Amino acid sequence: MSADFTPADASASLINVPGTLNVENGTVIINREDAAFNPSYRTCVFCVSNDGTVNLNDVTAKNNGGAGMAYVLDMSNATNAAYNVENSRLESTYIAVRAFNSGYDMNNVTIKNSTLKGKYCFWVHNYKGAGDSVGTDETLNLDILNGTNTFEYTGKAPILYGFANPIYYDVDGMVLVSNTDELNAALKTYTCVKAKEGDYTLTTFPAGAKIIGSGENTVINATSIITVNGAVNIENAHIVMSNDGYKGFQGNVELNLKNCTIEGQPFLYGVKANFEGCTFEQAAKGNYNVWAYAVKEASFTNCVFNCDGRCVLIYQEGPSLIQNVTFEGCTFNAATPAGDGKAAVEIGASNLTTGLYNVVINNCTANGFDAGSVSGSTLWNVKNGNRANVTVDGEICFVGGADAIGNGLYKSGSTYSVTNA
What we know:
Strand order of the largest sheet: 17-18-20-23-26-28-31-34-37-40-41-42-43
Number of strands: 43
Oligomer: single chain
Radius of gyration: 29 Å
Mean pLDDT: 88
Low-confidence stretches: 402-407, 411-421
Strand content: over 45%
Largest sheet: 13 strands, mixed
Distance between the termini: 86 Å
């Protein structure tokens, strides 16, 4: 099949489909290149009505509609309608496929091994309730995000839900945002939000929500105190935090950061703080990469710390906190030594009376740091107090905290020696 149609009217349909239409091995084009954008006018290659079904296989269909409301496939106010597309290319100057889904009977859209091109690739104009992912509309059975299709778009996202208050979805089906207002609005409704490259500011965070960035150029500013009673999940973003003291995510929080760059000096609070594949950046002299302050449990896995001599501090003013901190496969880099006996992981236990720091370090390296003021190690140092246990690569290097000991015990060879730590 081959067709090239230039309609005389601003609104036109090349093929209306009230029943079943099968098209194979063809090229179909509609031209309205001079049409100005007007929501009252529309052109479409295939216009599907109630009970209509379009089956396309190995078809190239284009709508050269200029800036008009141009569609290739348009399911307008239809019920019990279907698109089944395979091995095809659907291309429009506006939107390749639209489902104007205001009916109450199920409509079905299946697209596989095809390319969709337009300002937006797919638009659900009206919908009864989109969820966290594409295809959760109550009256739309949508199968296009199956990993077989290619999406080429010039708008904000490949997939658009709604009109007056649109929701954008990425090719992985997640809600996609591009500025702070969109991010904060989406986090109130959706449990997982994807942020495009750009600058964002966080002042609140709904417990249990998740942000997935688009890499280093997704910059999330979290420089204030953000209180959360639940999980904070952020992946694949550049997080800027304050160098001022006692700033960070607070409350009964579980902080989970993965594959992020963390700039500044976050103070850790709450139940847990988990860092996986993160890079910590601290250029300011006198500031740490991270301060494990009032958090009960913290883990750092395959992380890199870049600093100017001060890296990790485990310390808090209270007497009774029991804190477990683990480092696995981490690299600590100091541009210059601090010059005052600070190792990569500094532990200050002078305020603890009933509390205890349990620190485990495995397969980690420290580059450019001072030898610890008490330990003599560039990797770790209990700089004061004794209520700490330190294990490095399975070897117990410091034992403290037992009332009968009084002072910390440093291991030298196969023996322990009492220190006035």
